[in-house]
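Help!! Second protein's tokens look totally different from the first
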Amino acid sequence: MTKTRDSSAPASGRERILAAAVARFSRQSYDETGLREIAADAGVDVAYVHRAFGSKEQLFHEALKCAVQMDKIFDALGADPARMLAAHLLAEDEPDATVRPMDILIRSLTSPKAAAVLRTAVMEEFVTPLGAHLDTNATQRAALAAALLMGVGILRDVLELPALSEGPGGTLERSVADTLAMVLGQAGPKI
């Protein structure tokens, strides 16, 4: 039997650190964010942050995983990954969401240390699992799908390009899904 944490129970120190890291990395760049600040936000000693996560790079990687939650996305991938990924990309943010995963990415792209972590995270959390669903040129096609999704996400959510502002279920979602299907080798273009 699996135990689930009672939502009214206080969060563990590790959970508080992770939540504080996600919040900090979504507001500040990797280089501007310090472990002492995260520790203070979480109400723990900085030594506990080191014990719980090992290093700032490892904490950043865990914060990315927590914010993006790719495991949940891949659990729901189903028979039509292109449609599911397009729907997820254009889904409305949760009403109480204070962090958008794209914020963490954008704020830290210019840091060489963060870029190394981001590269590893994209490969481990997206490209490799998606590639497992593909046959020929799997890694390249999965990486191209990641580039397409990130590019649309940046132009839509960060730059707020009006042409990409349409919500879920419309022509934009169908266009993204059709393009992804072509990239993933699921079908030819339907344009």
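Here's the second one for comparison:
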Amino acid sequence: MISYNLICEEAHSFEAWFRNSSDFDRQKERQLIACPQCGSQHVDKALMAPAVSTSRRKAQVALALGEEQKKVLAQLKEMSKAVRENADYVGDRFAEEARKIHFGETEARGIYGEASADDAKALIEEGVEFMPLPMLPEDQN
């Protein structure tokens, strides 16, 4: 999965996840991507800073919340809470359990847990559908 910062013709910026860059291109061509604020389908990738890891302590990213961001954060919190209440926590066995469910080796059910970037990439390549849960401020504590 890849996350892109996107911007519409009205200069609204937002983030969206895609399977790969060609998935973004196909969805844009079919006008399946729309700005969540104004509904515009004239959307392009915005400039993104590369994620560079150094040995120095990473700076924390902060967002000053306006009313719209507060609403979105509340929705994300509700979605995350619903997943946790209605799915089984499998910890670091997420990739293994997701494969078992995908290939019919175990009962289909909702699960959540942790997976490495390599495991996530392998799941995508195998056609196993999943989505990352958002990292919320209270998850950092």
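Reply: Different proteins will give different token patterns, so don't panic. The helical segments are 21-29, 67-86, 94-102, 117-125.
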